[in-house]
Amino acid sequence: MSAVAPGVPGWIDLGSPDLDATRAFYTELFGWTAHTGGEEFGGYTIFNLGDDAVAGAGPLFGEGQPPLWNTYVITDSADDIAAKVEANGGKVLMAPGDVGENGRMAVFLDSGGAAFSVWQPGTMPGATTFNVPGALSWNELMTRDPAGAKSFYEAVFGWGHEDQPGDVHYTVWTHNGGMIGGMMPMEGDMWPAELPAHWMVYFAVADTDTAAARCVELGGSVAVPPTDIPQGRFSVLNDPHGAAFSVIKM
């Protein structure tokens, strides 16, 4: 059983060119402990917050792949989702396959080119705690085609959407009556043309400014300084290999 319902983001992991350095950085930043699997899983690491799994990290799949955080949506059938992705303008990057007895996964591009994954739980349910400091608190799609994304994710996962009022164009994804993520259009000069559509992960923290400063101390950098928004105070950070992630104090 998963900690979250099918159709809801429930796991994240990082593709890293140096797993030892990645383990050192994130355990120091978030107080995680790292549990590394055997060679048959490529040294894949599960990060725990206390006794609860919160994230993973594994090697990059190929030369030229950038380090990045991946969002996984929990599903009852990775194969069914793969068929829906292809039928609705997406692309299968990695066909559904078993990860031992842990579960079954697949990797896709949505209709706007943003990569995302699905996880069909076996013995490994995905993340088991959320919304506390050091754990995942939000997943957010950045896209140049918000209208296309609405149609795509509705068809693939049955998601609804609620466009938020205000000067900033922002959409909340909904599923079975709950808010499960967000979407922001990549509009204006703040988005370099070479930056692809992508899913951003947000970690809850006790203090955004402290987390940003600690990131820099550990060899990372700050892409967006700590900023107040109606939902709290957030910052966009880069780890030492350039993988982007956000932190927020709600």
Please describe the topology of this protein.
Layout: E1 9-16, H1 19-30, E2 33-36, E3 45-49, E4 52-59, E5 68-74, H2 78-87, E6 91-99, E7 103-109, E8 115-121, E9 136-143, H3 146-157, E10 160-163, E11 171-175, E12 178-185, E13 198-204, H4 208-217, E14 221-229, E15 232-238, E16 244-249
Parallel strand pairs: 1-4, 5-8, 9-12, 13-16
Antiparallel strand pairs: 1-5, 2-3, 3-4, 6-7, 7-8, 9-13, 10-11, 11-12, 14-15, 15-16
Descriptive keywords:
eight-stranded mixed sheet, 16 strands, 18% helix, alpha+beta, 250 residues
Characterize this entry briefly.
The protein has helices at residues 19-30, 78-87, 146-157, 208-217; strands spanning 9-16, 33-36, 45-49, 52-59, 68-74, 91-99, 103-109, 115-121, 136-143, 160-163, 171-175, 178-185, 198-204, 221-229, 232-238, 244-249. It has 250 residues and is α+β, with helices and mostly antiparallel strands.
